[in-house]
Amino acid sequence: MPVELDPDAALMLRVKRGDTAAFAGLVEKYKQPIINLCWRTLGDPTEAEDLAQNAFVQAYKSAARYEPTAKFSTWLFTIARNLCLNEIRRRSRHPADSLDQTYEDSDDQPMHQVEDRRVTAPPDELLRGELEDKVEEAILSLPENQRTALLLCRQDELSYEEMAKILDCSVSAVKSLIHRGRETIKQTLKPYLQTGVWREEK
Fold it and tell me: Which fold has domain 1-111?
């Protein structure tokens, strides 16, 4: 899609001219996809919301310098991914702090279900929901670049070329990351689908 036809880039150019209402529309459209990307990259819902908010703050602060050299979504997802990578690097330098934070978050806000499916859901729905949880867990266990490639692939409007810009690699590398990620997930889920046992549960 040519940049000049990207309606979101046109909205961002209005933000550049001082139209704050235009930015509110962009936030409304992209808030959940950006939160989802951050959450599944980091595995921490609270941190995901903070990073998503930070991504929009950075985008707004960059409005004066914004030039539509790519689709707005590509630009915004790149900002969000860079923030996630910074957080991953910070955690690697301070692993104890991150571990404490994860436990604190898990006490108050579990990553997955907010209701007990064993009580509220019929058997078929229970199994489907459990499988969805296992798929999400398998995605979270992937290397960051494979995980992000798969998550970006879920965004229907992003082309391989746009995903390559976000991931800072070639189109063929994006396709390879997606393929390897899917194959890893298949292999991870295979024993569970065959036996109903998740990894080495005790």
Answer: Rna Polymerase Sigma Factor; Chain: A (1.10.1740)
Contacts of 91 (CB under 8 A, 6+ apart): 97, 98
Buried b (16+ CB within 10 A) or exposed e, 56-73: beebbeebeebebebbbb
pLDDT tens digit sequence for 88-106: 888 777 654 444 443 344 3
The correct CATH number of 115-202 out of 1.10.3720.10, 3.30.2130.10, 3.30.450.40, 1.10.10.10 is: 1.10.10.10
Please choose, from the candidates 31, 35, 27, the residue with its C-alpha nearest in 3D space to the C-alpha of residue 11.
27
Q: Report the pLDDT value the prediction gives residue 31, as an integer from 0 to 100.
A: 94
Mean pLDDT of 118-130: 53
Backbone angles phi, psi at 69, to 5 degrees: -85, -10
Beta strands in 47-107 (DSSP E): none
Report the C-alpha gap between 91 and 185 in whole angstroms: 25
